[in-house]
Amino acid sequence: MRRAVCPGSFDPIHNGHVEIIARASSLFDEVIVAVSTNYAKKYKFEAADRLEMVQETIGGLRGVSVQPMGEGLLADFCRENGADAIVKGLRSTVDYQYEIPMAVMNRHLTGVETVFLAADNRYTHLSSSLLKEVQSLGGDVSDYLPRTVLKRLNHG
Ligand code: ADP
Helix (H, G, I), strand (E, B), or coil: what is residue 10? Predict the structure, then answer.
């Protein structure tokens, strides 16, 4: 049984995330989407809402579950949940430079490996912050966001 964790703050989840989670679920028997919260950061959506949007979006994917991760170490979360791997999407060399030290540190801490998937080129320009900014200024980002997220953004 191979289990992977897809971590992120998902503020909010977008189609770039969904694509990576779906690909992770085809590579692993089980995938846990871990919704993190860094209490020093300011989020648009509360932790419970971010978790709910992830659940509503990917709830139908076989073998995929969603859990809150809080502020603890990702390596500890993986160990506590019996995960062999962390799966991350890479959009660019900027992501690469940011991710490699974390991957090496996580492996040092608990032996957990990080698997990088190249972001699909339909989504390499996407980030939650860009989508929130464009949406808040009236731009149409409906091609990139799950329905549940669009609904909340339009009523928020
Ligand atoms: P953060 O860890 O900064 O809170 P996010 O919640 O935005 O990051 O994203 C979580 C993870 O999803 C990232 O670490 C990255 O692996 C992946 N990701 C983010 N945006 C994309 C994208 N457009 N395409 C593929 N993967 C992405």
Answer: coil
Q: Which atom of ligand 1 is nearest to the CA of 124?
A: 23
What pLDDT, on the 0 to 100 scale, is given for residue 156?
67
Q: Which residue ranges of the chain lie beneath pLDDT 70?
A: 156
- pLDDT at position 154: 87
User: Which candidate, 26, 41, 32, 23, places its Cα nearest to that of 4?
Assistant: 32
CA distance linking residue 97 with residue 90, whole number of Å: 10
> Residue 145's pLDDT is what?
98
Determine whether 108 is an active site residue.
Answer: no
CA–CA separation, 36 and 74 (whole Å):
9
Distance (Å) from CA 27 to ligand 1 centroid: 18
Asked if residues 84 and 2 have their Cβ atoms less than 8 Å apart, the reply is: yes
How far apart CA 125 and CA 58 sit, in angstroms, is 21
Between the CA of 7 and the centroid of ligand 1 the distance, in Å, is 8
Q: Is the CB of 34 under 6 A from ligand 1?
A: no
Indicate whether residue 16 lines ligand 1 (CB < 6 A): yes
